[in-house]
Design a protein that fits this description.
With 249 residues, the protein is of the alpha+beta class. The chain has a five-stranded mixed beta sheet, covered by helices on one side. Strands 1-3 form a two-stranded antiparallel ribbon. A hairpin with a 3-residue loop joins strand 4 and strand 5.
Length: 249
């Protein structure tokens, strides 16, 4: 048997794109499940605040509390609303406004991880990229989740910085943080499935960065990491350009 025939990619060169699309769908199911859980949790908390406020005798204070709870829940629902074309089923290259997408993903991860005190810094040399919207959102979602999860509680200020540069060949995304960083010798392991930089009891199963590498590499890009213990972490993602309206799966 020809060894090349054992590799499905030698028979079907579209397999890498298909795998990335399937990964998008799996991630979307997980994202919607987490969204639903968070909405239920926040709705219960808002109702509890309203119920407690209505039991008090101070009517103006109660109305202010009701308004605050309603505004918080409305803001959450706004952050969960996706623009048209951001579902993996619409697997087509479109112009994506990076700033609102990054801000939305960051606020969502802040709520999910209880990291409201972390600041987002954007250094964008271009306002738009022409890429796959669902895939880009999943990449940002996992990288920002990692940065917020491993923030350093001992530092006076915590931040996450997203930089973006565009060239004729593609885009470079650089996501940095001033968090805990990685221990010596760990940078080569962070993209392994189930790897966790923190102790097992303090961290969720490490699948996010493995997903980032898969989505990036199967789209023709690359991802690297630079980190030092106590010095934060920087991920550099390069994404190739694709013709708009000419890359349907």
């Amino acid at each position: 048997m020809n060894p090349a025939s054992r590799d499905p990619r030698a028979v079907d060169p579209s397999l890498p794109r298909l795998l990335a699309y399937v990964a998008d769908l799996e991630l979307e199911v997980d994202r919607l499940r987490r969204h639903n859980h968070l909405v239920q949790q926040e709705a219960r908390a808002a109702l509890a605040r309203i119920r407690a406020a209505c039991q008090g005798a101070d009517v103006p204070a109660a109305m202010a509390e009701v308004g605050s709870a309603g505004a918080h829940l409305t803001g959450l629902l706004d952050d969960l609303r996706d623009p048209h074309g951001y579902h993996p089923a619409h697997d087509q290259v479109i112009a994506i406004a990076v700033r609102p997408l990054a801000e939305q993903v960051f606020r969502w991860q802040q709520r999910l991880l209880g990291a409201e005190g972390v600041a987002l810094r954007l250094e964008l040399e271009a306002d738009h990229v022409e890429w796959f919207p669902a895939r880009l959102r999943h990449i940002l979602d996992n990288l920002m989740s990692n940065a917020l999860r491993y923030r350093d509680p001992d530092k006076e200020e915590s931040w996450v910085r997203l930089g973006m540069r565009a060239s004729a060949e593609g885009y470079e995304l650089r996501l940095s943080d001033n968090g805990l960083g990685l221990p010596a010798g760990a940078t080569g392991k962070v993209f392994e499935l189930f790897y966790r930089a923190a102790p097992a009891r303090a961290a969720a199963p490490g699948v996010g960065l493995a997903v980032v590498r898969m989505l990036v590499e199967q789209s023709g890009g690359s991802v690297t990491v630079d980190s030092g213990q106590g010095q934060g972490t920087t991920f550099v993602v390069t994404l190739p350009r694709f013709p708009v309206d000419d890359f349907l799966l």
